[in-house]
Amino acid sequence: MEIEKKYLIKNIPFSLEGYEHHEISQGYISTSPVIRIRKKDDMNILTIKGGGLSVREEYELPITDEEYISLSEKISGNLIEKTRYLIPDNQFENKSSLLTIELDIFHGVFKGLIYAEVEFPDEESMKKYNPPAFFDREVTEDFNFTNASLSEMQSSEINDFLRGLGIS
User: Fold this and answer.
1) Active-site pick, 28, 68, 85, 115
2) Among 101, 104, 108, which residue's Cα sits nearest to residue 80?
């Protein structure tokens, strides 16, 4: 089960140097239901997600390089490329939680877009969450901000989307 909130980020008020990070590229074989392949550093993962935005079932299965290459021929739409930084949430505003902020800085066609996702152990924790001050607008329930939706955007839609966020 995946329980998460997602926020846009306009400015990162600290250096990301020293934080664990991963290079990710992912493509979608299907967006309904979500069937995704992801390369995370040297690992390949097939992911299947259920319906919903903040709470949904998620299954991840490791796949071989050969399986990844074969499945990559079946993706449609945009390849999503990003660097994901893992930042302990408890370093902000005297928090004591053990949550991790997954800060995604997009590359490629979505260069300039930055998201922060926080996964929770349960829905109660999610409801009580108080985000750090540098988080901008929450977009958890906005389907336009899912990676699956980004993968389906046409070039002109991408430009309009980024411009609407003040990214050019």
Assistant:
1) 28
2) 108
CA distance 23 to 39: 8
28 is catalytic: yes
Residue 103: exposed, middle, or buried by beta-carbon count in 10 A (0-12, 13-18, 19+)? buried
- Both tokens of 64, joined, read 């071989």
- This prediction's pTM: 0.90
Closest by Cα among 130, 114, 105, 146 to 10: 114
Residue 94's pLDDT is: 59
Task: Answer yes or no: are the C-beta atoms of 139 and 149 closer than 8 Å.
Answer: no
Residues in contact with 19: Cβ distance below 8 Å, sequence separation at least 6, in sequence order: 85, 86, 87
